Amino acid sequence: MVTGAMFLLCYVTTFLRPLTETLYLGAVAQGIGQGLIWTVYGFMLSTNSSEKTIGRNTGIFWCLLQSSLVSGNLFYFFMLRGVDVLPEGSRIFIFVVLIVSAALGIVVLSLLRHPWTKPKKGNSHDLM
Questions:
Q1: Contact 3/36 with Cβ under 8 angstroms?
Q2: CA distances from 128 to 46, 58, 61, 73, 116 (A)
Q3: pLDDT at 86 (0 to 100)
Q4: pLDDT score recorded for residue 64
Q5: Cα 32 to Cα 81: distance, rounded to the nearest angstrom
Q6: Could you tell me where the beta strands, DSSP code E, fall in the chain?
Q7: What CA–CA distance (Å, rounded) separates 121 from 103?
Q8: pTM over 0.70, yes/no
Q9: What is the CA radius of gyration of the chain?
Q10: What's the mean pLDDT in 9-17?
């Protein structure tokens, strides 16, 4: 997931100085990143969840995904309210915020429990 998120970070950075070539390369990076993230997400969710917790864990993920759409659109709405043409300073600020958010997401993803690591002895609680 971290590798996929890094590809997505590369995609977002192409908008700092948008050129046709870099936007196409960024689109390729986004496709690879999304493919990796969604595939590994399904694998991690199914292996880290029991039959009892799979619904809850999927619901938590779905809630976070949908709330990020709302918060991101509110951010854009207030940043671009009353603007017909996007000034370069605003564009750079918006994409710096996105890059920082993506970098924080990479840190969070790197802290997730990997399905191939075994829990410590004596810790049989289902954490997820």
A1: yes
A2: 11, 11, 12, 30, 15
A3: 85
A4: 87
A5: 33
A6: none
A7: 33
A8: yes
A9: 18
A10: 93
